Amino acid sequence: MPKCTINGKSIEVKPGTTIIQAFKEAGEEIAHYCWHPALSVAGVCRLCMVQIEGQPKLQIACNTVVADNMVITNKSEPVKDAVRWGMDFHLINHPLDCPICDQAGECGLQEQYMRYGQYDPEMAEPKQKKHKVIDLGPTVVLDSERCILCSRCVRFTEEVTKTNELGIFNRGDRSEIGTFHNKPLNNNYSYNTIDICPVGALTSKDFRFRQRVWYLKEARSICTGCSTGCNVNVYFNEEGTWRVKPVQNDKVNGYWMCDKGRDVYKFTNLPVRLTSGKTGSKDNWNLLEAGALAKDVGATIRAAARSGADKIALVITGQYSNEDYDALFQFFSVGLGVQNIYHWINNPEDMNGFDGLLFRGDRNPNTKGLVARLEKYGVKTKWLDLEDKIKAHDLTHIVIAGPENHSVFPDLETKLRLFDQVPNVVWLSAGKSVAVDGLTAVTTQIPMKTFIEKDGTYTNYAGLEQKVKRGTTIVAGALTLEEAVHLMSGEELDMNMRPLPPKYLKTNFLVHKGGPL
Amino acid sequence: MTSTFQLSEEGAAFVKRELNRYEDRHSAIIPALYRVQKENNGWVSPESVTYLSHLMDLPESEIEEVLRFYTMFNTKPVGRHHVQVCCNISCAMNGGRELADRLCQEFDVHDGEISGDGRFTISRVECLGACDKAPMMQVNDTFCEGLTEEKAIEILREMK
Ligand code: SF4
Ligand code: SF4
Ligand code: FES
Ligand code: FES
After folding, report:
1. Closest to A433 in 3D by CA, of A414, A413, A411
2. Are A469 and A455 contacting, i.e. CB atoms less than 8 angstroms apart?
């Protein structure tokens, strides 16, 4: 194993390691625009310059392999000077329109300039004009003037998605990124090109001009868009959530996530949320606090169970956390002896679908966790049994742990028409729905928290358990499924069960009150 | 514009041969584009790139990258005869730029555009490697060297 010294630190690396990888391993900072750990080496930006002892010229770190006993630095004056000049060249034709650029605040050029630049530019020539606001497809907008031609996006469509939409056309200072004959860039991973673009050349149609990034906070979470469970950061402020970006996890998603998953923040925001408990039926609803309602309906169900648990059915979607399911089974299966428990599968046809990269047909984050619990509690029911029971009027109560993300439940309305034939419906869901508001049965709607508002564990398609932490609160009046079930079972919420950070106390009035609800 | 393009049988066979000739299949893009240009009235249309992409099993974007990088491929229709007048240093010193202007005037056409009768496209180009016989122009595939304005006009008049 070759030994080398990186900025004075000696480390040992695997044979074949490039200098830039060695810098990462040593925890030393190094500038790089064109190099990306998950793409091939291009060596075009010339910013990763290093000085190697005994070699007369500077080398690029991304395309030089570590040899034994190399002594490498990127802190020397010649390196700083080279990087500064590199910057100067990159900025020759750059429009410097940071004030109207979406990337400002998280831009490689800005960071680099503050670190190495801060010079007076020496270019007297006018800048080369290029195309701005080019519509590349449903997701991405290109500004050619801002592009530094690092070719990351091109290599992404070539090497990762293998769809080859992007190319670099023309040459010299007229080179521009584009697609063949304006074909759209429309693969299911296109947003990743925006993430890897080190500058503001590629921006997201969904996010651009909506928020300044320095006003956003981020929270680590997982995407609940399908059973892969890509690791993500969700960006939010007091007005809600705004975007989702992938976080590297080699066991799950590498560096990427799919475009469908980018939408998962949308169902967490107020306009589509069920914000209060509701009881009644079609056109005649009373609004009540979720907790009080959970207690009421819990008492009714417990009474009904005493006169026959077989008249109660529980329907569960794969959208909740393992903790939620545990509480649910504990109460219904163990506590009440309910055996009519059914798994609502939203898209049976492509449940096992997989696009070969990340995206899976099972559009639930935790089908695996649910199935494991169905097995554990010996549930062997089929959906058709439920339909038969409903048609035969065997049921008096149906409790539905409904979807968090309504958009991936194409069968929502059909299923609701079925449930509506049971006299009493308890609907637990994070989203508001016209269809639910149209139910004629005696209905109780209890608002649920979404994945970004609670702690929990999700089991992905491969059986990997991933924990998520509460990032923010959007609907303070909503409950987690676990909390709702506790209240239904007649217990009080034990607020000390999980100590809450002080900022949360301010925002969640349920918790703020502390005492019994 | 033709909506579908196909190479002649011979042309397609040529491209297939080129694909196996080099270490890297991409190397066949230039000869393939030349062939298309020859069979498609002197220019390479988007349809023909799509056609090549299928024929060569290479992405359209990669073929387009090569096409747009090199100036000897025309991405717009050209006249029946493509006249390329060298305006680089040796030719410029010997009146190449004036020659280009004169030809444009004589045949009533703007630089890089097709003449009204469809006969000519006249474009200014960089050095064609015949500096010792400056000024010079290339008409289709033929070099015409050691020109005077009159001589050049005469040559073009002959062309139908
Ligand atoms: S658009 Fe962005 S990622 Fe693509 S080449 Fe330009 S700077 Fe690089
Ligand atoms: S592959 Fe699945 S988990 Fe990953 S981003 Fe897409 S929807 Fe989300
Ligand atoms: S990162 Fe090494 S040249 Fe760009
Ligand atoms: S300069 Fe005209 S042929 Fe070389």
Report:
1. A413
2. yes
* CA distance readout (Å), A167 to A90, A193, A406, B67: 19, 13, 37, 12
Domain covering B9-69, topology:
Arc Repressor Mutant, subunit A (1.10.10)
ipTM here: 0.88
Residues of chain B contacting A170 with CB distance shorter than 8 Å: 68-69
Q: Which ligand is nearest to the CA of B128?
A: 4
Cα separation, B56 vs B49, whole angstroms: 10
Provide mean pLDDT across the span A420-447: 97
How does residue A180 score in pLDDT terms, banded at 50, 70 and 90?
A: very high
B72, two tokens = 């000897």
- Select from 3.40.30.10, 3.40.50.2300, 3.10.120.10, 3.10.580.10 the CATH code of B81-157: 3.40.30.10
Q: Do A180 and B60 touch (CB under 8 A)?
A: yes
What distance in angstroms lies between residue B26's CA and the mean position of ligand 1's atoms? 23
Domain residues of chain A, as ranges? Answer: 3-90, 111-270, 272-497
Residue A133 in contact with residue A213, Cβ under 8 Å?
no
Mutate to test the pocket of ligand 2, among A244, A256, A258, A407 (most ligand atoms within 8 A of CB): A258
Alpha-carbon distance of B5 to A517, in angstroms, equals 74
**Ligand that comes closest to the CA of residue A466:** 2
What pTM does this model have?
A: 0.91
Which token pair is A36? 């990306």
CA distance A202 to A195: 8
Q: Does A167 touch chain B (CB under 8 A)?
A: yes
Pair of tokens at residue A495:
């607020």
Pick the CATH number of A111-270 from 3.40.50.300, 3.30.70.20, 3.90.110.10, 3.40.109.10: 3.30.70.20
Domain ranges of chain B: 9-69, 81-157
